[in-house]
Design a protein that fits this description.
alpha/beta; Uracil-DNA Glycosylase, subunit E; globular; binds uracil
């Protein structure tokens, strides 16, 4: 079984779909690889592609700000990654083929990190993790128990930059994640 370092090397050399032709860097993920929470977004954007790190642009900064307000920090409490490890040009939604080609890497990350909570950020993440037909407005904020994982979806933070009215529900959803996290931590004591 590949370690996270080996996985990182495998992803860096990946040519499973044509996104490798236009990428600057692959973006595997970052955060605490032993944490109980994994956030999964869609795919890197321009900043992430340039730096090789997930959620470092405007949307990522908004997410970090909200999570930090709940005392959640990347290097300590969570791991964050994406469905696709390469940037689709012009930030288009990844195609089914691109997402499917990349999913084995996410599955391996889940096996390595062993999160108890998985948070889908946005419709693409919810589509590949929860349900192909899922509509984010219908499923967000509801816990799903599957294969021992507590899974929840919320809006993608980029959606909040376009529509401020989504912020309240996003915040409610993140608070649910924090509550579940606190429950799990206190049950472990
Ligand atoms: N949007 C995503 O879905 N992922 C990132 O890493 C950055 C922006």
């Amino acid at each position: 079984m590949l370690t996270m370092d080996e996985l990182s090397k495998a992803v860096a050399g990946c040519t499973r779909c044509s996104l490798h032709l236009s990428r600057t860097n692959t973006v595997l993920g970052e955060g605490n690889p032993e944490s109980k929470v994994m956030f999964v977004g869609e795919a890197p954007g321009a900043d992430e592609d340039r730096l090789g790190r997930p959620f470092v642009g405007k949307a990522g900064q908004l997410l970090d700000k909200a999570l930090n307000a709940l005392n959640f920090y990347r290097d300590k409490n969570f791991y964050i990654c994406n469905i696709c490890k390469c940037r689709p040009e012009n930030n288009r939604i990844p195609s089914d083929d691109e997402a499917e080609a990349c999913l084995p890497y996410l599955r391996r990350q889940v096996v390595i990190v062993k999160p108890q909570i998985i948070v889908c950020l946005g419709a693409t993440s919810a589509k590949y993790i929860i349900d192909k037909q899922a509509r984010i407005t219908a499923i967000r904020g509801k816990w799903i128990e599957r294969k021992g994982y507590h899974i929840i979806a919320t809006f993608h933070p980029a959606a909040l930059l376009r529509d401020e009215s989504k912020k309240r529900l996003f915040w409610e959803d993140l608070k649910k994640v924090k509550e579940k996290y606190d429950e799990i931590i206190s049950a472990d004591l």
